[in-house]
Amino acid sequence: MAAPDRFIAWCKQEQASIEQQLELLQAGKVRTGEDIGAGWIDTTEESIERAKARLAELNDLLTEDGTATVVKPSAL
Question: How far apart are CA 75 and CA 20, in angstroms?
């Protein structure tokens, strides 16, 4: 399998995983939190927003009209 095909397969797998996580978060079946030293605070809404942003980035990578730019490591 060529590198571009592996990359696309990885993006699709990541997309499915994030969609599943997002569904669980939005349904209230999973919650996230953070210990700020004075106890745990709920960070579920922030986690939902991060998941949505990551899905949008993956969609950009997987579609021809996407605005995401891929830079080769040798170009850095």
Answer: 34
In 1-76, the DSSP E strands lie at 33-35, 40-42
Separation in Å, CA 25 to CA 7, 59, 63:
27, 20, 26
pLDDT in tens, 17-53: 999 999 999 999 999 999 988 889 999 999 999 999 9
CA distances from 8 to 18, 19, 35 (A): 15, 16, 36
For the chain, what's the residue count? 76
Determine contact, residues 18/51, Cβ cutoff 8 Å. Answer: yes
Distance CA 30, CA 42 (A): 11
